Amino acid sequence: MAEKYLDKIYGVSDAETQRALYDQWAESYDSELDDARYATPSRIARALKPLLKEAELAAPVLDFGCGTGLSGEALAAEGFTRIHGADVSTGMLEMARAKGCYETLTPLPFGNPDPGLVSRYRTVTAAGAISPGAAPASCLPAIFMALPSGGRLALSYNEKALEDEEYMNMLTRITESSEAVLEVSEDGPHIEGLGSVSRVMVIRRR
Ligand SMILES: C[S@@+](CC[C@H](N)C(=O)[O-])C[C@H]1O[C@@H](n2cnc3c(N)ncnc32)[C@H](O)[C@@H]1O
To answer: Strand 83-87 relative to strand 61-64: parallel, antiparallel, unpaired?
Structure first.
C-alpha cells in the first residue's frame, strides 16, 4: 500500500524537511488526494472565474504552490488557458509538467516569492498552498502587496490555517487594510473523505 503523507506534512515546520517530504510525496499525491476527494482547487476556480473579465480570464494566471498540478487542472476545467505554476518542490513540479496544463513552471526559493515575479500577474491562485505544512503565513501579504491595482489573489485556508494565530493575523491584516476588497469568503468541503473544511477567498487589490 502506498505511504500516506496527509498526516505527516502538518507535523513538519522546517522548510528543507518539508520540501523533501513534498518531493517524496509527489508520485502518490494525486492518488491520495483523489481517493480522499480533494475539493478545494475546483472551489477556488469556480469562485474566481465569474469575477474576471474576458481579457483577465485569457491572461496568464500564477498558480502559486501548484504542487503536482491538481490546482492547474481545476483552473483549466473552468476555462483558464494560460496557467503558470510555481513551487519549491522540484518533485511536485515534475508531476505538474506531465499534466500538460501549465504554460510555464518555475522553481521557487523557500519563503516568500519574488515580488517581481508576482507583479507580472493580475490573478494569482494559492490552493492549499498557504498553510501550516506548506508556505509560510508571510506569503499572503507578500503576494497580495505585489499584485497590480485591480489584481486578485484567490486562495484557500484549511482548518490548520484557520486555527493558527499567525495565519489568521496575516489574513486580517490584509482583508482589513484599505488596499483590499474581500470579494469571496466561503467555507465548504476541503478533503471530503476526511470531512475537513476550508475557506475559499478572493481578495482584490484596490
Ligand atoms: C498541499 S500542496 C498544494 C498543491 C496544489 N496547489 C494542490 O492544490 O494540490 C502545498 C504545496 O505548496 C508548496 N510550497 C510549500 N512552501 C512553499 C513556498 N514557500 N513557496 C511556494 N510553494 C510552496 C509545496 O511544495 C506543495 O507543493
So the answer is: parallel
